[in-house]
Design brief:
alpha/beta; Enolase-like, domain 1; FAD/NAD(P)-binding domain; binds flavin-adenine dinucleotide; seven-stranded mixed β-sheet
Amino acid sequence: MPESFDVIVIGAGPGGYVCAIRAAQLGMKVACVEKRATLGGTCLNVGCIPSKALLQSSENFEETRHKFAEHGIMVEGVKLDLARMQARKGEVVGANVKGVEFLFKKNKVTWLKGAGKIVAPGKVEVEGQTYETRNIVIATGSDSTPLRGVEVDEKQVVTSTGALELEKVPGHMVVIGGGVIGLELGSVWRRLGAEVTVIEYLDRIVPGMDAEIARQFERVLGKQGIKFKLKSKVTAAKQDASGVTLTVEPAAGGAAEEVKADVVLLSIGRRPYTEGLGLAEAGVELDERGRVKTDGHFATNVPGIYAIGDVIAGAMLAHKAEDEGVALAEILAGQAGHVNYGVIPSIVYTWPEVASVGESEEELKARGQAYKVGKFPFTANGRARAMGDTDGFVKILADKETDRVLGCHILGPDAGGLIAEVAIAMEFGASAEDVARTCHAHPTLSESVKEAALAVDGRALHI
Ligand SMILES: Cc1cc2nc3c(=O)[nH]c(=O)nc-3n(C[C@H](O)[C@H](O)[C@H](O)COP(=O)(O)OP(=O)(O)OC[C@H]3O[C@@H](n4cnc5c(N)ncnc54)[C@H](O)[C@@H]3O)c2cc1C
């Protein structure tokens, strides 16, 4: 008799491993299939965690070299030990992936090691062994989107995975794509000494984010030394021992030019990953972009097969995948699992950071929503001045009639931490006045959020 489970989750990224743990907490017998040697998926192994480790290390290096002196801290002979920095990143990743293994043991989730294939509804094959299950959860995530004419070798032409592993600081790094991953990793290598050029097809960076914030963000990154080539497309990459030569054309068409680089980071987005899963044979439908089609409750068209995370529609973010994992486990247990897609924060972990939640001004305009805007700059915040981090501002958008908060966009120090209070406010349906009348400790960066909320009604105090 094959071993049988209540739930088999395929993929142990933040969507899959969280779903497995929550289902086990709710009393189900759970297995999670993972083909990687360690648990945690893209996020813990080659995504969020290693990138944040390098962002932190490179920011420390940058501060020591360029910011300490203004505080009267004079440090001489600062040197980069890249091998040590990379080893530390490895230790951070190691601690996190081991943590998930511990949580699986604690919650009695069985890790089925190897690639999982759906051989029929209720049957999953791993390493030649078939397991039976009442429910199958597809949580196989995503991988980087390729670009025609640009061959990745993960040495000279790298995806984010290779960009996290470079053993030498490149002289010139060209980043193809001005999205979150490209800007974060471009920032890492710029701080460590590379010249960085970002080539972006559109006329702006971080597409989808509030345009005013994006413009200001581009200016701040420009001041830091990152160069931008917007409205441009890369059509070919030629490699030789001396580096990579890119052919770049205006997006609207026109004369091509050549751009030379030591390392090229291809980061034009990510695409759902469903290779070898047997979805066609099982009859599971995909949408036009190759994502697993689901209804509002994560169910595919095949009864007993569900999907969550990067492999389905929606923001490709770890916390979105996690929340879907929890919601689905609760639905499978007969509870009312739910994800509020209107309140999913999104963060760029450069310095300053960019964070947003809810709708942008462009989205509000597009749907004809009347709104009010309140803004407050960090130059007027005492704590930001004390930190020497005054770039950026907080922008709150509220319903013109009801004052309900509809969105918040922040460029500034610790924007990612600050956005959490607005997410909670929005989750509770708060008005800008509710945020403005909440006592915020002084002196904190969060006073800028309060002041922006006051500004919605034209009554900011410190500007
Ligand atoms: C460089 C980088 C930085 C990022 N930074 C952030 C960030 O700061 N914050 C954030 O929210 N998001 C970030 N992301 C995005 C985040 O990593 C993803 O949104 C998240 O990992 C999606 O989780 P998931 O569970 O859907 O899939 P994944 O994490 O991709 O996990 C899927 C897992 O399934 C496994 N798998 C696939 N097919 C099979 C199979 N047939 N059998 C067995 N196993 C299989 C894969 O090996 C993988 O481990 C980043 C991504 C990258 C690349």
